[in-house]
Amino acid sequence: MNSDQLQGKWKQLKGSLKERWGKLTDQDLETIAGKHEKLVGAIQERYGVAKEEAQKQVDDWNVAAAQPQDIESGRRKAS
User: Fold this and answer.
1) b or e along 23-55 (b: 16 or more beta carbons within 10 Å of the residue's beta carbon)?
2) Domains of the chain
3) Per-residue model confidence (pLDDT) at position 72
4) Fewest C-beta atoms under 10 Å: which of 39, 47, 61, 77?
């Protein structure tokens, strides 16, 4: 998911972000507002990880968030 897609789907994705990174506050999410670099920076700050680690976590989350899910089972559909 690129930065434009992240911004466009921001309201839908905020719940998923809170689930994945529970230390992010509502204020953090308002500040991030769909901006990729701000998300990476907030994860760095809240979790005390290096930029590269925060970037890897966001990239992994982006891949997972972009995949369709089987709503009934809650599992990702095989591609």
Assistant:
1) ebeeebbeebebebeebbbbbbeeeeeeeeebb
2) 3-64 (1.10.1470.10)
3) 39
4) 77
Q: 33, 66 in Cβ contact below 8 A? A: no
Residue 40 in contact with residue 54, Cβ under 8 Å?
Answer: yes
pLDDT along the chain (79 residues), means of 10: 73 87 94 91 97 95 70 43
Question: DSSP class of residue 25?
Answer: -
Long-range contacts, 64-69 (Cβ 8 Å, 24+): 65/1, 65/13, 65/16, 66/1
